[in-house]
Amino acid sequence: NDKIEVGPGNVKLVYSGNEGNLIQYINSRSKVEQSVEQSYSYYYSDNGSADLQASGAYIFRPNGSHPIDPQQQVLLNVLRGPLVDEVHQRINSWIYQVTRLYKGKDHAEFEFTIGPIPMDDGIGKEVVTQIKATIQNKKKFYTDSSGRDFIERIRDYRKDWKLEVNQPIAGNYYPINLGIYMKDNDTELSVLVDRSVGGSSIKDGELELMLHRRLHEDDSRGVAEALNETVCVFDECTGLTVLGKYYLRIDPSGEGAKWRRSYGQEIYSPFLLAFTEQDGDNWA
Amino acid sequence: GATTDSLADALALAQHHDAISGTSKQHVASDYAKRLSIGYKEAEEVVSASFACIAESCLKTGRPNPVVTKFQQCPLLNISYCPPSEVDLSTRKNLVVVVYNPLGWKREDVIRIPVYNEKVTVKDSEGKEVESQLLPIQDAYKTLRNYYSVAYLGKSKKEAPNYWLAFSASAPPLGYNTYIISSAKQSAVSSEIKSFYNSETAK
Q: How many Cβ pairs within 8 Å bridge chains A and B?
């Protein structure tokens, strides 16, 4: 059980049997084999004690990164069937992930359930997922422009002015409405999203998405309220839980654009389902 | 009759930069959400009436059919809350699922709906059996379903269904397809489940 291979179709994901980590992405149709890792971590938000500027709804100002290592006894639950294979992972008590591979689809689907983010230590947290590959993207990555063309971004650089880097993480974050990708001469790694998130490539070969945030302080930029969404049942309130999906595909370099445009539309305009019931065989 | 006006109003308000970027106060965000929900609910009635009209051929006659089928949607399907799919199929009732494709190309996808009973079968509109698969609904999702359905809908807790029923569906460009879910003598294909343990933590 050194390796666990999952996927009923062309795309297979390989997990380490010892640690339960994703280690490889294989597409037998396009002959892609790429080492991949996927993990979660969170940034502590700035409480404003040093220079009065706290993290808030407007301001992303991380104060250290903290990996979230799965500490559970069950590393993976793998469900296999004719249509879809699923990998269930309880990352910790407030992050759950299901990875799906469909028979007829050449991508992997990641469904994340995050929350309520614990706040009892008095520190705001901004949760991200990181996808690491061996792609030499040399500081370049591409993000959509409000769902339209993908625009080249270069880490720690703006083509219109000389950038002084004060925030090495936040200063390289961009809004992601459709997707983000990176490439080198051989390989292109694309991620599409089902909701607007933040994203970046903080190190070469890595993409990251910010999926949820819960903060303690107001950033004094006009909201006048900390970003601390709750949901209440009767009088009992708890932090918001988010449930969303993102989609990963790896192609030979230059071959991912069609999928990003067409599947991006399918994420944005999914099948509309309507239900009714009828008696016996009396249906048309 | 129902219109899409409330949805148009809600979408117009949601263009505000605070709604786009999430920089509104909580009670304003709640107001955006409430207006969108009201708009969606009203638009759902328009869609239901349209589907009923198409399904019962009232377009040909130009007159509404006196026996109008009522179609429902499941906006909380992502947390496995879908009252129409909780129909008791053992009483000769069939669950009819209309799949509408809003895009201009033919597409296929896997549909997932929550069901209580594993003895179910899926057929297309020609009566041919469609490939399907049962997946157990995990406790993490049941908790989410119970909490959020009560929080948002104020409904008393009903026991969560046991399974997702997944099946392949296809629909033509800007068109629809119909699938019928009914009880069967045998269970649908179950997923093979295997757990992998962390030997260090287990020690």
A: 187
